[in-house]
Amino acid sequence: MNAILQAHLLKRYSGGFVLDANLQVDSKIHVLFGRSGSGKTTVLRLIAGLLKPSSGFVTFNQQTIYNIKSGISIPAYKRNMVLMMQEDTLFPHLTVRDNVRFADGNRESADRLLEQFEMNHLSDRKPAELSGGERRRVALLRCWAAQPRLLLLDEPLAGLDVATSIQFIDALKQLQQMTHIPILYVSHSIPECLSIADNVSVLEAGRIIAEGSPEEVLLGGSNDRSNSLASSLNIWKTRIAEQKPFDDITEIAIGKLTIEMHYIEGNVGDSIAVALSPADITISRSKVEGTSARNCINATIRQIDQQADRISLEVEAEGVVFRVRITPRSLRNLNLKPAQSVHLMFKAWSVKRLA
Amino acid sequence: MILDALRLTVISAFGATALVVPLGCITAYLLARSRFPGRDLLDTVLMLPLVLPPTVTGYYIVVLFGKNGFIGGMLDALWGWTPLFHITGAALASAIVAFPLMLRTARSAFEAVPRELELTSYTLGVSPLRTWWRVTLPLARRGIFAGAILAFARASGEFGATLMVAGNIKGRTQTLPLAIYEAFIIGDDRTATIMVLLLTLLSLVVIFATLRLGKPAS
Fold this sequence. Notes:
The structure holds two protein chains of two kinds.
Chain A: E1 5-12, E2 18-25, E3 29-33, H1 40-48, E4 55-60, E5 63-67, E6 72-73, H2 76-79, E7 81-84, H3 96-100, H4 107-116, H5 132-145, E8 150-154, H6 162-179, E9 183-187, H7 190-196, E10 199-204, E11 207-212, H8 214-219, H9 224-233, E12 235-244, E13 249-254, E14 257-262, E15 271-276, E16 282-284, E17 295-307, E18 310-317, E19 320-326, H10 328-334, E20 341-346, E21 351-353
Parallel strand pairs in A: 3-9, 3-10, 7-8, 8-9
Antiparallel strand pairs in A: 1-2, 1-4, 4-5, 5-6, 10-11, 12-13, 12-15, 13-14, 15-21, 16-20, 17-18, 17-20, 18-19
Chain B: H1 2-33, H2 39-51, H3 54-65, H4 70-79, H5 87-111, H6 115-123, H7 128-139, H8 141-156, H9 160-166, H10 176-185, H11 189-214
């Protein structure tokens, strides 16, 4: 792999959390995917030079940015790697224009950029007079105007509604195509990841547990490690088996199972990815009659994982594995054991389309 | 007497403010943002003049800046001069007494500037020093103004330390507070009253200004 950015980042925290991440970024938009608390923001800050690793190195195009062994540590302001934080960090005392030209002072290029993204009517406003979506886009333009060699984005869509998210992503893709600046993009949302990523690294509890294309990593591929993520979230890549618009139902085939989900646009045979939250599945010991749940499946418990209060079951039906989350009390009351036969139920609405 | 005292008060208070504002800003920022050994000790020592009786502060200044003192000795050796019994001494004494007010106000103003803004500025390629000038200082400016005004007010009313350091020499080091005391002692009530009203008016303006600065920008 011809990586542009290579990093091994080790950071120990007094609370016992250890970040130990090996990262190779070579694609246009590389998503660092992980749940909150997995260390994603720390990785960005370490690369940007805002935090010092306990050990490790960062290189960019073979140039050493940081190396604990040789004592090299280029300060953040000389790294030319711009970080757009999750917090609103527009400078409140400066106008939109002055924010955008903060790095290079160039008024013309700032105005051109604002005009290109149809925000020139906001040029003379202060950040407090902008909407949340506008503020994010101005922050993005400000990053761009600095002409970084690497752009680090920390959950830039957090808190934005769908329409403004789309606007932001459009702007991002447009800028990326214009300048080819590589982007390391932190996200915890699978749909977001599938829609923008060229490559994905999955960070869990401070370690990179999977790497590859978004489909491979998030929807399950050949790589064994990456399967853990897909299975822990019940994500399947499948095809539309039948469309029943009058019943508001789309049927999909997962292995030998036919599953009903709420109607989605598309033709029979179209490839789609769906997700089913482990907490949305109900387990019962005997078959339940007269339920509104559209999916009732006979299955067998394969495994029961208990970590503190989190109980997660692996239940198999016709070769398809479902991960099910239940409470400790349910586990006791139902007296569930491995190899036991059970019934799974979930609503058509619980099956969500991803991409 | 009144005009001379007023002139000396203004010189001394402005001199003190000019000394206190830059030093106060730098120290306040260091205390607000960085961790270094002896930080708490420095913080404590710098806040000391706020609680020490001004005469005690004045005594320390005399010891330090007198001909036999550590700094005074050097000044004397270099230029044959010390600030004692000079209007510079009055400004110096007022500055040291007023310093904690500046420090406290500026420090909370700096602490209120989100660290994320400074960090973002660094990643945008702007050095820490320039970031301080372009981001931190402008965002803390209201607190710094408020601190400067408070320091000016405290300096213009300084009595104890000034008396110890600069003495009470009419037309040379006698500021309004000292002149009020003298007028009162010799029974010149009319002069005392005028000067008292003058200082009261100044204090009112200062309090009004700091209250207005304390409000968030509209």
